[in-house]
Amino acid sequence: MPKSRLPSLILRLAGTIGIVLALSACSSVKLFYGFADNALESRAEEYLDLDAADERVVREEVAHLVAWHRTAMLPRYAAFLLRQAETTDKGPWRREDVETAFADFRVLLDDTVAGAAPYIARVLARHTAPGKVDHLETQMAVYIAEERLEEQEAPFDELLEERIERRVGNLERFIGPLRDDQIEMVRRHTRPTVGDRMLWLDQLEKRQRALADYLRRDPASAALAAFVYKLVLRGYDIVDPSYETVSAARWRKLEALYADVMASLSDEQRLHLSRTLRGYANDILELAAGD
After folding, report:
1. Could you tell me which residues come within 8 angstroms of residue 189 by beta carbon, excluding any fewer than 6 positions away?
2. Are the CB atoms for 239 and 206 separated by under 8 Å?
3. Rounded to whole angstroms, how far apart are CA atoms 91 and 265?
4. 37 closest CA partner among 15, 58, 8, 9
5. Is-contact 64 119, C-beta < 8 A?
6. DSSP state, 167?
7. Mind listing the pLDDT tens digit for each residue in 249-285?
């Protein structure tokens, strides 16, 4: 999966516990999953003003969240991967195969965030006092400022090459070395998306303000969970309806990239992909069983 630093606590928690746990680019899914508790706790420490009681609640909720994810989501991730392996075994990928895979992936993402939201909300519900909200807002603002500065100072070609390298690396972990024409394919699809990051940072800043404003209302945990879910997956409905079009376009661009790459796979690359997907699926099923 793409390397990313999801900037607010809410997005980081949801993202860390999400589909990346199953489709990790790490060499061992089991190893990555073993660090999930610590990764989530570190995100909370980075953004929240925690006292001893808060730290205990974070540990408890993270443990419950990971346990839920292990039993409720991991088998579904494994089934998803096995379906993609079966599609690969049938022959060259078609555009409709990619469309189906993306649709299934987004259902998994939706259900992951929906399931994780109550655990995240129970942590955030302890941080509605003015001082705690101010602390969270400050930490989120620091991240936005750093990311904007990095985007603004880096030359276009440098950003482009960085994102091409990341995408190529992610693909090669699943299908093996890319040919020169496939790397050029990635370049062609990536070049028009370089500016999308700044648009996302603007949107993210609005969502972070919305989160802080909502916490200041001291909402009940159930209402906060619903807000968390909506803010992560359809935040534009809360802060900027016009961004829905941008979000949909970003998904289409990513789907188009994968459609072209998957259609171009050689027999050797398809065999590599099938074996990799089944390997990840087997690791995930063992994790789900507690092995």
Report:
1. 253, 256, 257, 260
2. yes
3. 10
4. 58
5. yes
6. H
7. 999 999 999 999 999 999 999 999 999 999 988 988 8
